[in-house]
Amino acid sequence: MRSRTFWVLDDEDEAVVDDLAVGLGRTPARVLAYLLLRAEREDDPARTIQLQVGTELSRSPISDAVARLEDDELVERSTVDTDATGRPPSAWTPATDLDTSRRRVYDCHAETLLERAEAIFGRCSDTDSATGDERSGSELAVALNWHPNGLHVPFYAAVETGWYDEYGIEVELDHRAGSRRAVDAVDAGDADVGVAGAATVLRARAAGVPVVPIAVLYQRAMAVLYSTREAFGTELRSVDQLRGRRIGMPARSETGVLGRLFVSQAALGDDLEITATAGEERAALLSGEADVVTGSITDPRQLERQGETVDTLFPTDHFPIYGPTIVARESALRERRSALASFLAGTVGGWIEATDDADRAAERIADRGDDEPDRVRETFERAVEEFGHSDDSRERGWGWQREQTWNRLRTALEQGELLATDP
């Protein structure tokens, strides 16, 4: 009996797979990683049987993966001479080395994300014209959605590790007081790109603001409803416990809109009292003005550090909603497409750098904000683990968005009378 030996991917190779998966998705990334690493050991091209054994994938997903990799010019197909009759079998080699392949993966993914945005939201109209000061083709102003914090780590990581430089783009990070302010900055032309919650984006578009999401930064919204054991009187474990309670939430912020959406979807509107809050929601909780308040994932942790016992409900456990998204003006997809693609490609690199080691970015954020580096890093790591991924992003790469998810959110906002003309 004749035996054959094939080289296979192992645990030590997963870092390479991860680097590529952020721009390709897991399956094609595994195939490309195998071909790249195998090429360092063997000279002959890999046939399908070698890909099957080496990647532990079946024939069908391998066929789909190599077709996509060929389209992106990441691998090259050839044929193998054999003694058998019939069509010679195909085999593949990587088109270039690992570093160049990774750069091209991120580049191609950025363009795919822009095409995806156009497919979902339509191409921009000629009536939308840029406003504000025109920046050079290599400069990009980014309006972030809050003060410096752990959710912004990927952008800072891209700056600190040179990924934006790699794609020839100079990025200025500017912090705004909420998603709506970030959208306003993009609309006014004060920023080229903004970071804003999904509900805020849809409300702005409904009000005629010509912005379009070009990528999803985190796949799930991080809004929470929370209370202290002292304020609520018992452990908060279920939605039904909210009946007859006072819920504090800001009127127009992303968390406030999502809180109202949650109340609407849970059919609780007539069974509780919504209290409009000004400033930090937790102040209303601690003062006794509210029994439960809305917030972000970091808010309960801050109270826990003060010795409080805090219970939390996650609206996205009941209704899937995208988290912070990256938005641009519609006209920028036409007028500044190259700069947007460079920004997205650099951000993809920043994402993988941050998930590998967030220290440098965390220190930079701590210098500009109020949190210590350890807390910045902890916030980011938790956000990635619990809110950063979806089946779509695992199979298609970071930033992926689906039309159905946007349509569900739009319909829910309409049903809750939250898709107002005033964003």
TrEMBL record:
Residue ranges, annotated region (Disordered): 76-96
GO molecular function: metal ion binding; transferase activity
GO BP terms, alphabetized: thiamine biosynthetic process
Pfam families: NMT1
Residue intervals of the SsuA/THI5-like domain: 152-361
Chemical reaction(s) catalysed: N(6)-(pyridoxal phosphate)-L-lysyl-[4-amino-5-hydroxymethyl-2-methylpyrimidine phosphate synthase] + L-histidyl-[4-amino-5-hydroxymethyl-2-methylpyrimidine phosphate synthase] + 2 Fe(3+) + 4 H2O = L-lysyl-[4-amino-5-hydroxymethyl-2-methylpyrimidine phosphate synthase] + (2S)-2-amino-5-hydroxy-4-oxopentanoyl-[4-amino-5-hydroxymethyl-2-methylpyrimidine phosphate synthase] + 4-amino-2-methyl-5-(phosphooxymethyl)pyrimidine + 3-oxopropanoate + 2 Fe(2+) + 2 H(+)
Keywords: Iron, Metal-binding, Pyridoxal phosphate, Thiamine biosynthesis, Transferase
Pathways involved: Cofactor biosynthesis; thiamine diphosphate biosynthesis
Coiled coil: none
InterPro entries: NMT1/THI5 (IPR027939), SsuA/THI5 (IPR015168), WH-like_DNA-bd_sf (IPR036388), WH_DNA-bd_sf (IPR036390)
Transmembrane segments: none
Described function: Responsible for the formation of the pyrimidine heterocycle in the thiamine biosynthesis pathway. Catalyzes the formation of hydroxymethylpyrimidine phosphate (HMP-P) from histidine and pyridoxal phosphate (PLP). The protein uses PLP and the active site histidine to form HMP-P, generating an inactive enzyme. The enzyme can only undergo a single turnover, which suggests it is a suicide enzyme.
The protein's assembly and partners: Homodimer.
Family: Belongs to the NMT1/THI5 family.
Name used for this protein in its record: Thiamine pyrimidine synthase
Organism in which the protein naturally occurs: Natronococcus occultus SP4
Lineage: Archaea, Methanobacteriati, Methanobacteriota, Stenosarchaea group, Halobacteria
